[in-house]
């Protein structure tokens, strides 16, 4: 939001008749905002920069020279080593993560939009209470649920299967919250009324009209859920005991922990593996950015 | 891998939260075990761990033991969720029979009732292991598993640079170490003999050496010994070096530490056997051949005793239906020469079994350490490691608090003695909070 202000301020100033009298204050606040923004950009990007730079270094190059600058270029050979390590299990881990995050986020988006839409558009006894429970669930940190989930899944023999990670990933209280807010604000009752008069069933109305109107919120929900599943560690670490089911997060930590052992995975391979697993997220963000922005602000309106 | 898999992490907390935590291990072999098959026919047992190389040892066993098949499953490293998983699985009643557990975590597992007493099956194997390693898997007279590896400590030092500063023989005692520290620092104020790091388990090794255990269990209750007189001897010795600025203040395993070593500003490291390859790869090729390994400096040259920093066991988890077969496998894995050779080569362990110490895989000269057979130094120390050391049931908290306080000692805002008093009171509070009775202090 601050970026918008900075961008729009000069234009406003140039058209303003009191141009001469105001620049002092607006200049100083601009610099302040710019300073704060610069600090936060550095704060957030420095680790990413370090990761990118480090992924181009050889194992010995990592420990000599400046950590934030290049020291030889070995990115391609590093990537080859990542995919060759332990018979190429890294590709399997990436694929697993993609299944967990992609399928989990898609299904949770669908369920969240159904639930949120129903809560917004079909008032029923206790819908308020139900929504408040969902709101409360937003506040419960996911890792706290990992152990109870294990104890629930264990007697029904779901532990150590794809389902053990997928099923909990299909639920997103925050998604339900966002979908409800967005549906209430953006899907006009008049449209639903018109659809009903034209003989469209509720299900058809939902999929053909409401879902389309809600699409910015859906992208937001999808992205949020995708990122949180992608970076989830404790749940898969707890549920899975089979290397070929693991997502990339658990796999990389396993590699990293071998540091110092007889045939440890070299540090440059671990770092490059970590850098590589960020790439799909960046691609996803860049390609869905337009929707993402409109979705973000929609939640904050109400 | 850092052969100690720092503490039980969230595991202990998780156990406490979900009511696993009992005051002492009741050792009830529950009937809700996971392992299948009657004891008479072929038995299949599951083994959870994360170290590379274990799987190959399991494969070797399975080939030669058709009646007892081991099913290896790689789980997250202990401190990264693996221990939590094991404790949760015990609670859920589907834990595997066997698990890789660090020595420092075994008492917290025992306190949580997650281990199975296998004393009757294991006791015949006792003589095959260094005495102190057996004590690590035995708590209050009950044996819960078989030791796998050990991590004796030694002095890794840059022989070439020591000679440059006129030190031809590495310090054999702590008094000599202190004198050499002063000599080096006097010759060049930018150069230090070593560093006072922030590694809690490394400090534990120093107390271990001086027979100053942090935990003891007289009368079946925990007693804390951070501020014992032996512990105070260690504390005042290191406080002296820190106060005289004879040690660098680099943090343990930090890039700046290795940079200073590579630049010839830090000349030695008192650390465990697993640090030898770690240091070599971190300091880098420029000093290859310059380094050497000497025994850890001792307090009393006429009765040398050494410390340990790491090591782990194959534990038998509560609920195992075939504890005898599980113990049989665990013993085999730690003692069979084929298995031990594999664990030395692939996992990088230093064996706890006496027979393992003469394994040919340990007799290769190490080029980084001037073609010295470095394991010979550790081998000679093994029988003289203090046997009395016992880890407590709250090592996650202890190592965190001690690590933080060590950092304060480095910066001078805390003394070593003050640090130990602080950790002792925090540990007592944590034990009380977990409903574990604690006495003395």
Automatic annotation (TrEMBL), chain A:
It is found in: Cell membrane. Belongs to the binding-protein-dependent transport system permease family. It is a multi-pass membrane protein. GO terms for biological process: transmembrane transport. Keywords: Cell membrane, Membrane, Transmembrane, Transmembrane helix, Transport. This is Carbohydrate ABC transporter permease. The chain crosses the membrane at residues 31-52, 98-120, 129-153, 159-179, 213-235, 269-288. GO terms for cellular component: plasma membrane. Residues 1-25 are annotated as: Disordered. Pfam families: BPD_transp_1 (PF00528). Its main location: membrane. It comes from Actinospica acidithermotolerans. InterPro entries: MetI-like, MetI-like_sf. Residues 8-20 have a biased composition (Low complexity). Residues 94-288 form the ABC transmembrane type-1 domain.
TrEMBL record, chain B:
The keyword tRNA processing does not apply. Keywords: Cell membrane, Lipoprotein, Membrane, Palmitate, Signal, Transport. One of its GO terms (biological process) is transmembrane transport. InterPro entries: Bact_solute-bd_prot1, SBP, SBP_1_CS. Residues 1-21 form the signal peptide. It comes from the Bacteria. Transmembrane segments: none annotated. The keyword Cell membrane applies. PANTHER family: ARABINOSE-BINDING PROTEIN-RELATED, POLYGALACTURONAN_RHAMNOGALACTURONAN-BINDING PROTEIN YTCQ. Belongs to the bacterial solute-binding protein 1 family. This is Extracellular solute-binding protein. The lineage of its organism: Bacteria, Bacillati, Actinomycetota, Actinomycetes, Catenulisporales.
